[in-house]
Amino acid sequence: MADDYRSRIGRLIRDSRQHRGWTQSQLADALGSSQSAVHRIEHGQQNLSLEMIARIGEALDKQIVSLGQPGPTHLRVSGGQQLSGSIDVRSSKNASVALLCASLLNKGRTVLRGIARIEEVNRIIEVLESIGIRTRWLGERRDLEIVPPERLDLDSMDVEAARRTRSVIMFLGPLLHREHRFKLPYAGGCNLGTRTVEPHMSALRPFGLELKATGGYYHAEVDRKASPTRPIVLIERGDTVTENALMAAARNDGVTVIRNASSNYMVQDLCFFLTRLGVRIDGIGTTTLTVHGRSEIDVDVDYAPSEDPIEAMSLLAAAIVTSSEITVQRAPIEFLEIELALLEEMGLDYDRSAEYVAANGETRLVDLTVRPSLLRAPHDKIHPMPFPGLNIDNLPFFALIAATANGQTMIHDWVYENRAIYLTELTKLGGNVTLLDPHRVLVEGPTRWSGAEIICPPALRPAVVVLLAMLAAKGESVLRNVYVINRGYEDLAARLSVLGARIEPFRDI
Ligand SMILES: CC(=O)N[C@H]1[C@@H](OP(=O)(O)OP(=O)(O)OC[C@H]2O[C@@H](n3ccc(=O)[nH]c3=O)[C@H](O)[C@@H]2O)O[C@H](CO)[C@@H](O)[C@@H]1O
Ligand SMILES: C=C(OP(=O)(O)O)C(=O)O
């Protein structure tokens, strides 16, 4: 019996080590032990103390043994501290998930450099692995290698992981070239109200895809003889629908024109990646994309997705709400220009460095230094638009910034049915935020923030907005159940702590 447990724990340790891309010697170094001891542990030949199991878990960043289900993670924030220093923007959630899905187009080995280490990416990796794709973290755990099998095993799909994201909808475009018939679970993700899949269906129909939604699944049938005979006109300029159409077009043997395409940051990253796969795309960065597809893609490809403009905006908001001077390094300026123009109107004092190029060789980056400023409310309402408008995912941060400014600001989120509602959580921290209707909130500043205990709203950006307000609130706050934040941000609490924030993660016992 004891032997059996030792072997099972040993296997868990071996799997976690391999998932991290470490050798036995590397783990031994991290533990101050020897390679032969790690070998014995992994083969169940060594008695392990609880302390040793905890140390191994810490080294591998993975809980090896738990009593029951591990509970949710919460954050305790001691607010009112000014932040200082510099912080790098990490790669984007939205490009990372698109590129993971796009790897399904490639028979060769795909390496994604510096991909975001976030829960949303973890869920997609779990789905990919469950259908037979081998993934492995390389080097410093920032680069992901993806190797496809000869045939996918779609029936074994990890449905639980798939249902926790909306991104799995982007399997449709690549899969329609590999399978005649398949099913995908309904797309999940944040609770932002109903989000349509109709534009995806109409964009992919010309490629022969028919979808029926029943019993919690989209049932797909593909007519392989079909291919678009005229330009595909998207009924919405959505990001993931554009990506789905691009991925379908990438392996369509011929030229596909996509009109009313999104030219947002993640779409551009996907276009650059597809170009590396040998797919020519004209019109990158515009709303008409002309794709010269290839029926076979078998390339060993290496690509580094660009920095996340939404994370950059979040960090600017962190500086503004805490009246701090910080430098946000590696900000993708093309996707922040309108946000910065508006902040300038509101009175923000900031500098930007000369431009330099991201690791993808394309995206223009700058360093932004923000200084404490007295902000005033803008004259007009703030509302988002598809790129090149103010980014839809950046809008919630303007509610927080408006709460620090003098005067009244109307925030109009026409896009999501439910997202503006969560901004009223700021009232629990002393904000003056009135919900006028499900799409509009009126924010009156400036605010004297005060600490509170709040359960994370079930939406990524509003949850981060609440966390940032807690940084400004004097006294202690608690933010409960922060999975939703970890879905889209890498080590946010730890990285803000490096800037001087006092944030401590904890779990219920
Ligand atoms: C994985 C990923 O990349 N997610 C992003 C992507 O989701 P995604 O592309 O999946 O966004 P949706 O297709 O759900 O669009 C968001 C909402 O906007 C509406 N809509 C969209 C475009 C349009 O021209 N008209 C219109 O009405 C949709 O009906 C929907 O209600 O784009 C959203 C909007 O930028 C972002 O918030 C998400 O972070
Ligand atoms: C709404 C968002 O993303 P998703 O499409 O992954 O739900 C977001 O990033 O804020």
UniProtKB/TrEMBL annotation:
<dbReference type="Pfam" id="PF00275">
    <property type="entry name" value="EPSP_synthase"/>
</dbReference>
<keyword id="KW-0961">Cell wall biogenesis/degradation</keyword>
<dbReference type="GO" id="GO:0008360">
    <property type="term" value="P:regulation of cell shape"/>
</dbReference>
<dbReference type="GO" id="GO:0008760">
    <property type="term" value="F:UDP-N-acetylglucosamine 1-carboxyvinyltransferase activity"/>
</dbReference>
<dbReference type="InterPro" id="IPR050068">
    <property type="entry name" value="MurA_subfamily"/>
</dbReference>
<dbReference type="Pfam" id="PF01381">
    <property type="entry name" value="HTH_3"/>
</dbReference>
<keyword id="KW-0131">Cell cycle</keyword>
<comment type="similarity">
    <text>Belongs to the EPSP synthase family. MurA subfamily.</text>
</comment>
<dbReference type="GO" id="GO:0003677">
    <property type="term" value="F:DNA binding"/>
</dbReference>
<dbReference type="InterPro" id="IPR001387">
    <property type="entry name" value="Cro/C1-type_HTH"/>
</dbReference>
<dbReference type="InterPro" id="IPR036968">
    <property type="entry name" value="Enolpyruvate_Tfrase_sf"/>
</dbReference>
<dbReference type="GO" id="GO:0005737">
    <property type="term" value="C:cytoplasm"/>
</dbReference>
<keyword id="KW-0132">Cell division</keyword>
<protein>
    <recommendedName>
        <fullName>UDP-N-acetylglucosamine 1-carboxyvinyltransferase</fullName>
        <ecNumber>2.5.1.7</ecNumber>
    </recommendedName>
</protein>
<comment type="pathway">
    <text>Cell wall biogenesis; peptidoglycan biosynthesis.</text>
</comment>
<comment type="function">
    <text>Cell wall formation. Adds enolpyruvyl to UDP-N-acetylglucosamine.</text>
</comment>
<keyword id="KW-0573">Peptidoglycan synthesis</keyword>
<dbReference type="GO" id="GO:0009252">
    <property type="term" value="P:peptidoglycan biosynthetic process"/>
</dbReference>
<keyword id="KW-0808">Transferase</keyword>
<dbReference type="InterPro" id="IPR013792">
    <property type="entry name" value="RNA3'P_cycl/enolpyr_Trfase_a/b"/>
</dbReference>
<keyword id="KW-0133">Cell shape</keyword>
<dbReference type="GO" id="GO:0051301">
    <property type="term" value="P:cell division"/>
</dbReference>
<dbReference type="GO" id="GO:0071555">
    <property type="term" value="P:cell wall organization"/>
</dbReference>
<keyword id="KW-0963">Cytoplasm</keyword>
<feature type="domain" description="HTH cro/C1-type">
    <location>
        <begin position="13"/>
        <end position="67"/>
    </location>
</feature>
<dbReference type="InterPro" id="IPR001986">
    <property type="entry name" value="Enolpyruvate_Tfrase_dom"/>
</dbReference>
<dbReference type="InterPro" id="IPR010982">
    <property type="entry name" value="Lambda_DNA-bd_dom_sf"/>
</dbReference>
